[in-house]
Design brief:
This protein is of the alpha/beta class and 563 residues long. The protein has helices at 7-16, 19-51, 56-103, 116-157, 159-179, 181-206, 208-214, 217-269, 275-287, 289-316, 367-378, 400-406, 421-425, 436-441, 444-449, 468-481, 498-511, 524-528, 547-553, 555-562, and strands at 337-344, 347-354, 359-364, 385-390, 393-394, 407-410, 486-490, 516-520, 532-537, 540-545.
Length: 563
Amino acid sequence: MGADMSGRGVIRRAVAGQRRDVVVGSLLGAAHQTGEALVPVLIGLIVDRAVVRPDGGALALWLVVLAVVYAMLSYGFRFGARAGERAAEQAAHQLRLDVVRRVLAPHGGAEAGRPPGALVNVATEDARRVGALDMALTLGIAAVVGVVAGAVLLLRASVPLGLLVLIGAPVLMALGHYLARPLEHRSQAEQERAAHASGVAADLVAGVRVLKGLRAESAAVARYRSTSQASREANVRAARAAALQTGLMLTLTGAFIALVALVGGRLVLSGSIGLGALVSAVGLALFLPGPIAVLAWVGAELAKARASAARIADVLAAPGETTGGTTEPATPASGQLRLHGLGHAGLHGIDLTVRPGEHLGIVVTDTADAATLLHCLARRCDPDRGHVELDGTPVTELAPAALRSALLVAEHDAQLFDGTLLDNVTAAAPAGADPQPAMDAAAVDEVAATLPGGTAGRIGERGSSLSGGQRQRVALARALAADRPVLVIHDPTTAVDAATEARIATGIRRARTGRTTVLVTSSPALLAATDRVVLIDGGTITAEAPHEDLVRDHPVYRTAVLT
């Protein structure tokens, strides 16, 4: 995207990235418009040279010339429009990739304050509107050529008529630009409301089961109705502004054409121009509203594109949650994880070393402290005090993407996506890796048995066809299949029955043999399978021992994991 993250920068990128198609489309469009302007002139010549003074040979010749011009303008329109449309679609596609790449960037931050539906709206409708500017630019350049060609041809027929067009057309263009300003503001408000409505809808759909369980359907419907109504009203206001702008431009254009026809008629009556020139002048007067209307439409599209470009720029320029380092982790990674005096939010002075290949359990009595610890390990935030090291290198010095290739934090609320069960499990797996050990460890075979098609069965959006425990098992299998040197897992079995949980505890241990694994959980079954357990109570480490010893000797630990 470069240094310019403004709305203008987004527009410049959309145009510059498709410069070749825009130029080709503009040239072919210009050929089409020139041909359109030549048609009434040729008809006027035919009238003067083959009709007023009947001449069959001249009539045949000029008809052939007219046919060639028609072929030229038809070819120009067809292939010019195709080049412009290709430029628009490719520019929109590239912008969508830019937005998605920014949303998925390791340093995060793009989603802050924006619901998922709003980001989807930016990546789809806003990208489409900015991309459409390439098509508008292609047609706009061709329209300018058409107006100029019409004016030049009118000058050849009559200097007064030509001057009238040369003066009047720029005035109309300036008026169109001025009238488009309110539309730009209305369009931006419309997109903001539409994005908000999409965000509310996405939230409601995601939480539909909870809403039904709480019997809060009526409140949810009322909330969406209110948001949708606001979006509709913004859309209507934008449509009114567009209709007003278009209507005013058509009125001004009609008045301008009437003035051209009036002046042309007076010139014919005075004998300054002949019958053929009159036909040409009238034909050109009828032709001119087309390119002038296109210029008005281009102004409206530019206004919409500016509003959408500003929204895209806001996402692309969103500050990251963390600043990125540049160092690559050691290869191969040994998997040693160290916390030095870590302090952030409720955590105070956490000193902890996880040895390479160790299977460590962490019990945190405060859920907020657990979330803080996970965020620091995943580097979704940097601690206020102290630091985290991976194989002796502070994670703040590691490139975010490289860090995530070595250390994966699988949070409790991990989301699944619409697709097959196998696609979800292998989403982050190394190319060619066998996912079966990870699925066996997470007891996903039982989930596959409930789906038509087994592992090839679709699980629905966010795993909607699965139960809570089944979703947890698929998410755990995905984390295990990623096969990172260091894996941190948060409460992977809270919705799983005791027998399956015991099987999973053994499976994780087996699947992660020789790999550093940290389990942040209060599950006795999972903790019993670890090498040792660290207890964090009141934001500090208060105990460290094998699970059995802590259950026997530490009341706080016993309360945390057994009640």
